[in-house]
Structure formats: structure tokens, C-alpha cells
Amino acid sequence: MNTAQNKQTILNFFERFSAGDATNALTYLDSDVMWQAMGIKGDLPVSGTMDKNGIGELIKMVKEAIPNGLELTPVGWTAEGDRVAAEFISYGVLTNDKVYNNPYHFLFQFSDGKILKIKEYMDTLHVKSIFVDA
User: Fold this and answer.
1) Each residue's pLDDT expressed in tens, for the chain with a length of 134 residues
2) Cβ distance 120 to 38 under 8 Å?
3) Which contiguous run of DSSP H or E holds residue 125?
4) CB–CB of 58/36 below 8 Å?
5) Collapsing DSSP states into helix, strand and coil, what is residue 88?
6) E-strand spans in the chain?
7) Residue-by-residue DSSP string for 97-122
8) Residues with Cβ < 8 Å from 30, sequence gap 6 or more?
9) pLDDT of res. 79
10) Which segments constitute the SnoaL-like domain (predicted)?
């Protein structure tokens, strides 16, 4: 696949993720996908590593917490070969009326047109203040 197709795959994945549609979101992922959300020792609920089943559970958890959907807006791309670096901004209103608005940097690696690896960098303090300290 070329870089434009890889970027479109990421957009399609996040569109389904944002809608809480785990079944269709997971179709964009390789069966051996690993998502690593950065955070010391994996202490936050969304830090550490997740396999495909864990990603499906994350999508469901986000849908429950943010029932109107989590908007993920791309703001920058860098792509080369099977790797795409992407900056996103999220926005969503939780059931407790808190606003989740976090900047992200993702590094995606592709294999045969599917997302094989995801590394996620975000404001972990914001995650803690919205989801843990609620």
C-alpha cells in the first residue's frame, strides 16, 4: 500500500473507533496488532499494551464514557514506507459532563494494508484528571 492508502486506513479506523463501532474498527487491524499507550509502568487505565481484543474493549469503554462519540481530528501527518506518524486532537463530553480534549501523537506501522503496531503519546495527566480522578 502507498502512504495515501495507509493514511486513509487510519482515518477509517478512527471514524469507526469514534462511533464506538468496535466490530468494524477492528477490521482495519492486523490479527497480531499491538497498541502501546505510553505511560510509566502502565499505571493509567489506558497505558501499557493492548492486543486486538484489548483495543475492542477500549473502544467499548470510550463509547460508554463518551456516548455521543469521541471526535478525533488529524492535524499533521508524516509518512514513509510502512510507517505513518499522525497528530490528532480529541474532543468528547463524558456522561459526567467533563470535557475530554487531548492532543495525541501516534506512530502506526502497517503490514499488508492493515495496522500492525500503534504507539500512542498523549497528555497522561489530562487522562488521569478526566477518567481516574473523576
Assistant:
1) 689 999 999 999 999 999 999 999 999 999 999 999 887 666 666 678 999 999 999 999 999 999 999 999 999 999 999 999 999 999 999 999 999 999 999 999 999 999 999 999 998 888 888 888 86
2) yes
3) helix 124-127
4) no
5) strand
6) 29-37, 48-50, 71-80, 83-93, 99-100, 103-111, 114-122
7) SPEE--EEEEEEEEETTEEEEEEEEE
8) 111, 112, 114, 115, 116
9) 95
10) 12-116
The pTM is what?
0.91
Closest CA to 76 of 103, 47, 38: 103
In what helix (H) or strand (E) does residue 12 lie, and over which residues does it extend? Answer: helix 3-18
Q: Which CATH number fits domain 3-132: 1.10.3370.10, 3.10.450.50, 3.40.190.10, 3.30.470.20?
A: 3.10.450.50
- The reported pLDDT for the residue numbered 29 is 98
Cα separation, 69 vs 92, whole angstroms: 6
108: which residues sit within 8 A by CB, 6+ positions away? 6, 10, 83, 84, 85, 86, 115, 117, 118
